[in-house]
Amino acid sequence: MWAMPQNSVVIRYGAYESCGVVKHSTFRLEGLQAALNESGYQCVLQPTCDWNMVELVINGECVYTCNIKQLEFGGDGKLDPLCKRALAAVKDAY
Questions:
Q1: What burial class does residue 32 get, using C-beta atoms within 10 Å of its C-beta: 0-12 exposed, 13-18 middle, 19+ buried?
Q2: Can you give the pTM of this predicted structure?
Q3: How far apart are CA 72 and CA 85, in angstroms?
Q4: Does residue 31 contact residue 75 with C-beta atoms inside 8 Å?
C-alpha cells in the first residue's frame, strides 16, 4: 500500500468553465501550490467530479474548501487572499 509522505496536502479540484470549455485545469492552482511548496508542504493533485471545487485534504480530512474560479490565475499565491487562508488552514491542521 502506498503511504502519503509527511507534510503532504491533497488538492482535490473539479472541472470549471474557461473560454467556453469545461475541463480540469490546474492554472488556477499554481499560486496555491507555490504557497504550499514554499512553506514546506508537498502537493498531490487529485481531480474530482465536483465542478468549481477545490478541497485541501490532510490525512483524509478536508481542512479548506473554496471555489476554484475565485483563485487568482497563475502567480505565486503571495497576493491571493484565498491562498493565505488555505495556507493558514493547512498550518492549523498540522
A1: buried
A2: 0.90
A3: 13
A4: yes
Cell numbers at residue 5, please? Answer: 509522505
Q: 38 and 31 in contact (C-beta within 8 Å)?
A: no
**DSSP reduced 3-state for 49:** coil
The length of the chain, given as a count of residues: 94
Dihedral over Cα of 28, 11, 91, 7: its sign: negative
| Mean pLDDT of the region 45-56 | 97
Q: Provide the sign of the torsion angle of the four alpha carbons 73, 74, 78, 83, taken in this order.
A: positive
CA end-to-end distance (rounded Å), the chain: 23
Q: Which CATH class is domain 8-80+82-91?
A: alpha beta
